[in-house]
Amino acid sequence: MSPVRILVCGVLLGAVLCAGCSTAHRRASTRPLPPDWELTPADKSAPPSPPPAVEPAPAVARPATGWIPADTLGPWQRISAGAPDTYALSTSNGVWCVTVGSRQAHFDGVQVWLGFAPQLESGRLLLHALDVQKNFEPLLRAPMSASAARGLIVLDPGHGGRNTGTRSAVDGRWEKEFTLDWAMRLAPLLVARGWRVELTRTNDTDLSLAERVEFALRRRADLFLSLHFNAVHGAGREESGLETYCLTPVGMPSNLTRGFPDEVGRAFPNNAWDEANLQWAVRVHRALLTVNGGSDRGVRRARFLGVLRGQNCPAVLVEGGYLSNPAEARKISDPAYRQQLAEALAKALE
After folding, report:
1. Superfamily name and number for 3-19+70-140
2. Model confidence, pTM
3. If residue 197 lies in a helix (H) or strand (E), which one and from where to where?
């Protein structure tokens, strides 16, 4: 969506609001754990016990198919005419803005990537039924139940050990260091808000994706949040902004594949939480945008993220900025900025 159309959506939203409507490699951490909250590190020396019996995930609903009139959701207003047209739907829960031919939509000013670009047929706006079911309706329903809140949240600091992640363009430090510090700052803030918190790693440990998933499964997590920072290798150092990911619903093409096969018809365990995944992702994304200055690359869907696919609870992965971008890398290297990121996330999860 062009800046002009984003601005138009923002103006409309303001009006609506005003109107009221791999092998483990372990090294001891040099940073002591905070004394006022309890963790169960993933690298305890005791041998692992068999995973507990876990209630089976809800069945994955049969995906919707075909195109349906957008006005099924309510009356849409054309706010930008021409090629392409932009439409907005104002509801008590927020404002959706879509552009014909574009998968980039906005909900209350947050960029949300669709599975299929809206179409125009004989002057009538059409949306794909799967987008209606998995993207539009979850955000237009009543606010998400707080039943998962105050339960157990597993924080997953990305990378660790020999799996260093990407490198800062400013000071050469590794992503694994920043993600761990972010999680360590976030954990006590969540505990203060009533959550129980565990981290997949509390030191410079290399954990496989399968180990991270198993960690959450054994503990019967109510929410899984994986923390990362992004990078572009080679050209494109100007790329910047926040990306938040959740698993792609069955039948929908992913927004990002990174060269991996996109098995559109395959259901993964985490697909049972498609609706909650998106709701949590939008909450987290919106909160972090208040810290990074609104540089928004969107809430996106992907299947190649193995740390999400096998989760037996709502799961979200955050890319908190680009370490390959000197300006963003400079912010990320600042402990005060990482504290702001932690506080924004804690507020989002209240």
Report:
1. Copper amine oxidase-like, N-terminal domain (3.30.457.10)
2. 0.83
3. strand 196-199
